[in-house]
Amino acid sequence: MAVLSPSSLPQSLLSSPRPQTPFRTHPPLYHCSSPPLSSLSLSKTPISLSKPKSHRHHLLFSTTSSTQSLQTPRPFLSTHKPIQPLQTHFPTESLINTSLSSTITAPLLDDYINLLHLSVRYGDVQLAKAVHASILKLQDDNHLGNALIVAYLRLGLVFFAHKVFEGLSCPDVVSYTAMISGFAKSNREDEAANLFFRMRSSGIEPNEFSFVAVLTACIRVLELELGFQIHALVIKMGYLDCVFVANALMGLYGKCGSLDFVLQLFGEMPQRDIVSWNTVISVVVRELMYERAFELFRDMQRIDGFRVDQFTLSTLLAASTGGLARMVGKQIHAYALKIGFDSSLSVNNALIGFYRKCGSVKDVVALFKRMSIKDVITWTEMIVAYMEFGLVDMAVDIFDKMPERNCVAYNALLAGLCQNGQGSRALDLFFRMVEERVELTDFTLTSVVNACGLLMKLKLSKQIHGFILKFGFGSNACIEAALLDMCTRCGRMADAQKMFCQWPSDQNGSIIWTSMICGFARDGKPEEAISLFHLKQSEGTVVVDEIALTAVLGVCGTLGFHQMGEQIHCHALKSGFLYDLGVGNALISMYAKCGNMDAAIKVFNIMPTHDIVSSNGLIAGHLLHRQGDKALAVWSKMDNADCFSQ
């Protein structure tokens, strides 16, 4: 395989400055590998991004080549003495309170370093500030300044770390890298990129830790274009063989959906670690390539002989859940028990998600009771599991017993109540969230709109609609689609059509037109639903999903459009929605209403899973065509079906 080189990347990135494109703000999405630099534990408190500065867009690839040889990169704290307990021979008070000379001796330097270690170990901010005050009396020393920067960053004091950095007369690559990493991990990605450009323009060459730091910023805001430039610079400076840098590049490309780059980088790595394998496995799982994930897992053990960690197991369980591979998931569970991960919190949380999709409520409850350690994710997973199994009261009981709650737990309960048709209870919960000042997200408002649609109350729908518009959430696509759906359910078809016509043409309209088709179908206007479906299909501007297919199949059954129903059937087969439970049930009903019971039975037989709606549709079809014996035969099989034994 050819080595990945700058020629395989966009040529404009090697010779021209980066375009003036500001960073987008996205939530953190990737946990990269952990070289000594990235192991700093920084504060997660959100900090608003500053406006991009003009110097940020300096050319990455300077035409002046540096004649200085690259210094061997050093971890920030690894060159110092290991952290030792506070000993009585440390002159702590005299060190801080006594006026010192400007000369820094080696023992004095070690004392300062050890005090900074202690401040980080015990979270003692005042000790770090006291050491800082004493250091100000001494001569400028990068070694001590860098240690102080790292200490402040690990204590979550990015502002103080930046002040120390700006006070250094000649910051080196370690100083810059520490601050780039600190900004990248504190929701200040734009400042991290600016500082990287500033380091380059000052003539300081980045090392492998610098690349990991700036790539972390790119990953958190999905800045693929800048990532391409960083990749080319990595190749130019010879750092592509560094496993930390390659892992960070794979993480960026994986988050941005560039699977081919991930696989090419992974295949050309001369050396891999467990993070390399975990990264590529997680990327293929995100791309729904579940079998490929299991193949990579086997290759990891066969080629490099790595022992899996909790991240590997959690990812493989996610693949088992997504692929509905029940036996594979149970094998992974057994393997986790065998190698001693039975008490791992992340693995157990993933197991709850797996058994929620591929098991029974007994499996989920037994696992939950065995867990000695639980967090908010564990409790929230149980709420979702109970709701999916239709055990609403048990889900509410779990919510009430939670030792701590966040908005995700509230949203899980709210969505579960809507899913189970409990519109009134969902609205009561929403009012409680408003009173308790719980954070309201897009997901919260979408759920409460759905709850209002379930109740089909005109006045209430207008109140909820006004509340959402008042707080400025009306421009969100998902919320607008939910509002349109609510209007159609509450008899406000004129408002629904007005929202539909005002939808911006430059935005994806799949959700909104699907809601409109469903609205026409529910409002007794099947001709309008079919016309809209044909219009959007002919334009080719939207993607048909399983919800739209289900609605149109229902309309075909109502009108007796057998030929069109067959065409929709073919479209579902071509687009991969044939095995969706809702689409399958709609096909059974459509064929039964159109008089084609043979096709209805065939669809029923090829469905991978059934529910009560599947069998009821088949029974209703037989009864419609006066086939009582066949209806009774389906009824007799229902008691033995696995899907009704939860």
Shape descriptor reads: elongated
Biggest β-sheet strands, sense, barrel:
none
Query: Number of helix segments?
Result: 34
The residue fraction in helices comes out at 55-70%
Assign the structural class, choosing from mainly alpha, mainly beta, alpha/beta, alpha+beta, or little secondary structure: mainly alpha
| Count of extended strands | 0
Low-confidence stretches: 1-102, 642-646
* Separation of the first and last Cα atoms: 51 Å
Strand residue content: under 5%
Report mean pLDDT, rounded to a whole number. Answer: 80
Oligomer: single chain
Radius of gyration: 30 Å
Which characteristics define this entry?
disordered N terminus, Serine Threonine Protein Phosphatase 5, Tetratricopeptide repeat, 646 residues, single chain, mainly alpha, disordered C terminus, 34 helices
